Amino acid sequence: MIEDELNVWFEDQIVGYLWRNNRGAMSFKYDDSWNKFSLSISLPLHKPHDDLTAHRFFANLLPEGSARDRLCRRFRCPDTDFDLLREIGSECAGAIAILPIEKDPDLDQSYQKLNDQSLKNSLKHMAHR
Fold first, then answer.
1. How many other CB atoms are there within 10 angstroms of residue 55's CB atom?
2. Using one digit for the tens of pLDDT, what is the confidence trace for 63-103?
3. Average of pLDDT values for 20-24?
4. Alpha helix locations (H) across 8-115?
5. CB atoms closer than 10 angstroms to residue 81
6. Running DSSP on this structure, what letter comes out for residue 128?
7. Which helix (H) or strand (E) holds 120?
8. What's the mean pLDDT in 50-72?
9. If you ran DSSP here, which 8-state letter would residue 23 be given?
10. Given CA atoms 10, 12, 13, 18 in this order, what sign does their dihedral have?
11. Handedness of CA 41, 43, 47, 50 (dihedral sign)
């Protein structure tokens, strides 16, 4: 596994590549085949994006404060933007998924409807997780 590189996906298509430099800052480059839309006004298509611009965009997909602290403890990962994206990037806000380079997005996800009792039990035991 290459620890300092992640793939950015939209549905089943690769959008680009996110990596961390030796200072811990993230950079981003669109895949040559991606031409559908830019991820942000700050990340226009057809050019690599420096550490500061890319880092700000991708870091803003992550939770802050106590929610972030709990996730870092749960996944036993360092409290860095890149490490947290590696752990929860498939579940970030928005339509993109950020995954380790050896993984493809799971397009066959489904949800199980909870009845009232299951929901109550989950909430009751949440503090223990």
1. 21
2. 889 888 888 888 898 888 898 989 888 887 678 899 988 88
3. 84
4. 51-59, 65-75, 81-88
5. 19
6. G
7. helix 116-125
8. 86
9. T
10. positive
11. positive
Find all residues with CB under 8 Å of 44, minimum gap 6, and list them. Answer: 38
How many Å apart are CA 80 and CA 83, to the nearest integer? 5
Residues 79, 15: Cα–Cα separation, whole Å: 25
Torsion angle (degrees, nearest 10) of CA 110, 74, 51, 6: -50
Among candidates 95, 98, 23, 22, which has minimal Cα distance to 59? 98
pTM exceeds 0.85: no
Tokens of 73: 């403890």
In the chain, how long is the greatest CA-to-CA distance?
Answer: 52
Which neighbouring-strand residues pair with 10?
A: 13, 96
DSSP 115: P
DSSP annotation of 126: G
Residues facing 6 on adjacent strands: 18, 100
What tokens does 71 get? Answer: 């996730």
Give yes or no for a contact between 37 and 43, defined as CB atoms under 8 angstroms apart: no
